[in-house]
Amino acid sequence: MKILSVMNNHIEEAEKKDYGYGCTCDNCGTTFIFESSEAAYPRHINPKPNECYVSCPNCKHIITLAKCTKFKTLYELNDFKRIYDE
Fold first, then answer.
1. What is the pLDDT of residue 49?
2. What does the radius of gyration of the chain's CA atoms come to, in whole angstroms?
3. Could you report the per-residue pLDDT of 29-81, keeping only the tens digit for each?
4. Cα 80 → chain centroid
5. How far apart are the C-alpha atoms of 8 and 52, rounded to whole Å?
6. What are the residues whose beta carbons fall under 8 Å from the beta carbon of 75, sequence distance 6 or more?
7. How far apart (Å, rounded) are the C-alpha atoms in residues 47 and 42?
8. What is d(CA 20, CA 34) in angstroms, rounded to the nearest whole number?
9. How far is CA 31 from the centre of its chain?
10. Where are the beta strands (DSSP E) in 1-86?
11. For residue 28, which of 8, 38, 42, 59 is within the disulfide window of CB 3.0 to 4.6 Å?
């Protein structure tokens, strides 16, 4: 058997690459980006974004992922960096 072309159409784009999240703290106004592995998730199947949280690296205020922006593409991540980078 010889594979001529590998097609992974059964794998969704979200599963292929995780570009992370971007968030602005309500308490201190700090804007930061983070990977999804840095967020805290509850220990049950399919948690909702309002149940998951991340803490602000500046003031340690807890922010739910529902208030953060999930990047779907590398372009969204770069635009977020360009807008908020000092």
1. 86
2. 16
3. 899 999 988 999 999 888 888 899 999 999 999 999 999 999 988 899 999 99
4. 12
5. 30
6. none
7. 7
8. 6
9. 14
10. 21-24, 31-34, 53-55, 62-64, 69-70
11. 59
